[in-house]
């Protein structure tokens, strides 16, 4: 006769085996990586930026680097910067070298599109700190980031009107929290950062391994809850990796303080889940981020626009609502559109048949209005558009009035 102790051992062993089986399935059964790799076209180099003696002594383990590639290496070595500064903050056990994909694709876009502006990429070396497991390093990292923002801005010479006054922050994983924690510093000028992009950042922790990390999260939550409404000039974008990221789940990347929360499978022209580190080099996603940055530039100042609403519209377009080409244009995406007025006019066409074709071989020079009768509100209609240069061309509404005998929407 089996003893109760033996029965307990058998049940415990079986339960543990089921747990291991489930854990194995959780760690191995997810969609394959569909991202293309980003490649460097020229030899890269990370040039160390000298810091003030006091800062260097205070943060001996940390460093600040500038990314350079090909012919731009000598210019960066000479500390000559004339672009828009972007500062990368790595996450737990992260490296400053992880900025290379974003920086290299940005350089290729500048060379290809010949814009009158470009981006300068900088990155923090945080000595591969385990910031995801030990909260004691978060305060030091935040303090170092504060000094580096000021140092990056001090590198730019020339007329005051042409010098950048703000830095774009891109934070990966815990680096995103450090970027947000920058605003906790009492002597930090919040106008020096107008745009933060967090990648796979756990805005909601899965676990709090120590009291210091718990306190850091609590301080962040309290500060942002209290001050987010007044921080109207700051744009915060949070991007998660989706199902492939088994380190930081999609639900953790959602921030109630962000202007935009999105996961990579939902991003237009990406539609792919990425793992925790792939999010930094996934070509499809990196290209979308670079396009968003370029479209956020004010061509007058050649810096990131001060118009917070425009920044939000640009990132929303590229990440959520892309309905036209690769470039956001306010002329294509106006806030309001007058479909008809007695002054603007516009032709009206009524299509009464179940199947009808409306074509204009010579193109359309003015707004055109087409009415299609629907027997009931539940009726459906299929519209096929051919040879359109943009996707954002169709607006629908109900014709329920008339002006001068002309029915309007």
From TrEMBL:
On whether Transmembrane helix is a keyword of this UniProt record, the answer is: yes
Q: What is its main location?
A: endoplasmic reticulum
Query: Which Pfam families does the UniProt record give?
Result: PGAP1
Keywords from the named record: Endoplasmic reticulum, Hydrolase, Membrane, Protein transport, Transmembrane, Transmembrane helix, Transport
Location in or out of the cell: Endoplasmic reticulum membrane
Highest taxon of the lineage: Eukaryota
Q: Which GO terms describe its cellular component?
A: endoplasmic reticulum membrane
Residue intervals of the GPI inositol-deacylase PGAP1-like alpha/beta domain: 81-295
Q: Which GO terms describe its biological process?
A: protein transport
For this entry, the protein name equals: GPI inositol-deacylase
Q: Which organism is it from?
A: Ranatra chinensis
